[in-house]
Amino acid sequence: MNRAVEFEEDNDRLFCRKLARVVSSTGYPNFADQLFELIQDLVPIHGLELSEWTLDIPSATIREISILGTAGIARERARCAALDQGLLPSILHMNDPLLIQRRLPSSKLHPLCPVHQCNLVAGNGNLRRIICFYRQSSLRTFTLPEMSALKTFSETLLFLLEHHSRSLGRVRQSAAKQNNHAGSVDNAFCKKLEWQGVPLSAREREVCVGLLSGITVPELARRLEVKNSSIESYLKRAASKLGVRGRHGLARWMANS
Fold first, then answer.
1. What is the CATH code for 198-255?
2. Which of 13, 50, 84, 245 fits 249 for a cystine, CB–CB 3.0-4.6 Å?
3. Segments making up each domain of the chain, as ranges
């Protein structure tokens, strides 16, 4: 087989594997990083930002901007957020997906701010989902062939962004419900501790409340940034003070009036 053909087929397989990783990461914090790695195979960029804009179309203003993920230099862009307003007139009234290139003024005060933007935008009612690709001044502006390459994959990229946004919404709703539940459990647990005069450390109380709220040991360890074994140790110490054994004993203690 011709080496050039082999090289092209290897690149296609690698691209497909990266695309599969992007698909599997939708709804997770690493989605933007996986997408950034994929785009680098199409065109060189320094960073990207995923966002969802809610517009007030009659007043031609932005009601809300939700950041759905960042990668590369986009993580340093908080100081440059005001520059986003310049995109609004181009996306206020739209039907089909757009690919918009912008050159931003460079700033000596904020050298990390990118100067080249290429925005892939999908619109639905007053909602705009945007994939913004960034380049610093060390790279040229996006060329027509590069924009054509991005346009070729625009339907897939915007579909993945929509799926990612919806998945994040479900995760946030679930987390909000869990946090509300944890808050009520925390209040009840603390009142019972006070009533019985049992002194628990702050971390022991956090672990007990988390487990009583239905959070798993691995998830609780991740939230508290400790090892799984540390969660078990805190539980063991707390259970000893309460005169019970293990998670089931803790649950029974909590259930008894």
1. 1.10.10.10
2. 245
3. 1-173, 198-255
pLDDT for 106 beyond 70:
no
pLDDT value, residue 54: 92
pLDDT tens sequence across 136-178: 878 888 999 999 999 988 988 999 999 898 888 765 555 545 5
DSSP the chain: --HHHHHHHHHHHHHHHHHHHHHHTTTSTTHHHHHHHHHHTTS--SEEEEEEEEEETTTTEEEEEEEEEEEEGGGGGGGGGGGGGGGHHHHSS-SS-EEEEEEPPP-SS-TTS-SEEEEEEEEETTEEEEEEEEE-TTSPPPPHHHHHHHHHTHHHHHHHHHHHHHHHHHHHHHHHHHHHHHHHHHHHHHHHHHHHT----HHHHHHHHHHHTT--HHHHHHHHTS-HHHHHHHHHHHHHHHT--HHHHHHHHHH--
**What is the topology classification, in CATH, of domain 1-173?**
Beta-Lactamase (3.30.450)
Contact between residue 97 and residue 121 where contact means Cβ atoms under 8 Å apart: yes
**Residue 28, burial from CB neighbour count under 10 angstroms (0-12, 13-18, 19+):** middle
The C-alpha R_g of the chain, in whole angstroms, comes to 25
User: What is this structure's pTM?
Assistant: 0.61
Burial 134-150 (b: 16+ CB within 10 A, else e): bbbeeeeebeeebbebb
CA distance 234 to 204: 5
